[in-house]
Amino acid sequence: MEQDTHFDSDDLSWDPAGEVAVTLADGASTVEGGPASGAVIVDGGTVTISAAGTYRLTGTLTDGQVLVATGEEDVVRIILDGVDLSNSAGSPFVVQSANEALVYLADGSTNSLQDAAGYADQAEDSPNAALYSLADLTIAGGGSLTVNGQYNDGIVSKDGLVLAAGNVTVNAADDGIRGKDYTVLLDGAYSVTAGGDGVKADNETDEDRGWLLVSGGTLAVSAGDDGVEAFSQLTVAGGTVTVDQSNEGLEAAHIAVSGGTVNVTATDDGVNASGGSSGTGTLAGGMGGGMGGGMGGGETVGDYSVDISGGTLTINSQGDGLDSNGNATISGGTVVVNGPSNDGNGALDVNGELAVTGGTVAAAGSAGMAVTPGSSSTQSGVQLTFGTAVAAGTTIQLADSGGNLVATFVAAKKTASVVYSSSAITAGEDYTVYTGGKAQVAAGLGNGTLDGARQQGSVTAGEYTAARGPGGR
Question: What residue spans carry the region label Disordered (predicted)?
Fold first, then answer.
């Protein structure tokens, strides 16, 4: 997907001799140097850039605006090198027209943008973010940027958006960072606090658009609605994504994790592939009869998918943990789900087929809506169903017939069912379940010993209770 963006690494190189220096000051902004200096017009608190070129901005406007209004084929590079820019009536930074705008954060610089709490211009297509672009937008550089979107959104591109580098903090009344055709995080550190969605790509009309990719860098999100959302495809191929507060953590029609580290906390579904916005117990007899499971109880199987092939995905959800309104596949990586305690949701919820062919899966939660790997799975697993839910913090361990530990899991919340699959599990073999003992885990899984553990029962690999069944027998 990276090759489908407007971004080119050559955009990050230029001849400093060609820079235009713009010093921002209330009522006294100045322009000097460079062949494009005549393309900068200062009118009171508004600084307008009207031609392609490289512009280095310094200084402060307590009530002003930087406006980019160039030809549709022009590429404009704006270097923020110690800029503090605010506007009392609207957006302080607007790209009205260009082919591409690059906002480059000068190494070592600290910059800030803050818009008005209410906008004077309320027209439908008017700016509604502290950094607003109608053209392709790239953010790069080694400096820092704080964006306060008091009115609505923080950073918006109504075209494509590439976050190539930078240390960026966004606080927004509604959405934090929003691209239309695509939103891509290549590198840098981005921290978003949003009243609405955290980071999104929302083109709902053009084919092959509305996608979001994280291939590097770090993204931390605290959102009042969805954490990271795309209309079509959401992919994490590298980097670190942490959603520490959200309604739904990751949401898109198609969600893929092939690398990196993803940690999601959600009051509803943790990972949701859909077309919407958004104490020690006793093991109850182990497995029910029959192979299979994994189907969504007769629900419609739509064109939605979750595909985990690498990386680490950790979910803590009050609703469904990993939820697909279509199919789901896990072929690599590590998936840990600390799902719901109530029986109205499940740690795994797949309307179609859940195919597990590799990786490690530990999905813990309630038993009433438990979904298990389907018949197309080539890697075996077990389902542990407790007659009495075990308390948060309980160590749950699994040993083979020779007494060798094959799994150690520590429950993050009250747990009645655990589905576990890994290459260490052999279909048809019996395994003994223990609670207690010693454990050293990261994200719930790790190593342990059976010192002090209590035997709870046994299970047979590959035998699952019926999907959405009551658990146990």
Answer: 454-473
Rounded to whole angstroms, the Cα distance separating 328 from 291 reads 18
User: What gap in Å lies between CA 164 and CA 145, rounded to an integer?
Assistant: 13
Interval 357-386 mean pLDDT: 92
pLDDT at 336 over 60: yes
> pLDDT band for position 344 (50/70/90)?
confident
| Alpha carbons 309 and 58: distance in angstroms, whole number | 45
Which residue type, as a one-letter code, is found at position 386? Answer: F
Return the number of other C-beta atoms located less than 10 Å from residue 74's C-beta. 20
CA dist 416 and 370 (Å) reads 10
Scored b (16 or more CB within 10 A) or e, 381-415 reads bbbbbbeebbeeebbbbbbbeeeebbbbbbbbbbb
8 A C-beta contact, residue 248 and residue 268 = yes
Helix (H, G, I), strand (E, B) or coil at 18: helix
Cβ contact 227:221 at 8 Å? yes
Q: Is 368 left (phi over 0), alpha (psi -120 to 50) or beta?
A: alpha
If we measure between CA atoms, which residue out of 370, 378, 386, 398 comes closest to residue 464?
370
Say which residue, 143 or 282, is predicted with more confidence: 143
Label the pairing between strands 19-24 and 271-273. unpaired
Confidence of residue 370 (pLDDT cuts 50, 70, 90): confident
Q: What is the mean pLDDT of residues 89-115?
A: 98
| Model confidence at 472: pLDDT above 80 | no
* Contact by Cβ (8 Å): 383, 462: no
Beta strands in 195-253 (DSSP E): 199-201, 211-214, 218-223, 228-230, 233-236, 240-245, 250-252
DSSP bridge pairs for 454: 435
In DSSP notation, 371-409 reads ----TT--S-EEEEEEEEEEPTT-EEEEE-TTS-EEEEE
Q: Which of 353-357, 410-414, 428-432, 463-467 has the lowest mean pLDDT?
A: 463-467
Q: How confident is the model at residue 468 (pLDDT cuts 50, 70, 90)?
A: very low
Per-residue CA distances from 192 to 171, 247, 468 (Å):
6, 15, 37
CA–CA gap between residue 40 and residue 304 (Å, rounded): 49
pLDDT at 3: 55
- % of the chain exceeding 70 in pLDDT: 92
DSSP 8-state assignment for residue 28: T
Q: Please give the structure tokens belonging to residue 182.
A: 């695509």
23 membership: H or E segment, kind and range: strand 19-24
Task: Kindly report whether the global pTM for this prediction surpasses the value 0.90.
Answer: yes
For the chain, give the percent of residues with pLDDT over 90: 84
| Interacting residues of 40 by C-beta distance below 8 A, sequence separation 6+ | 20, 22, 31, 47, 48, 49, 50, 55
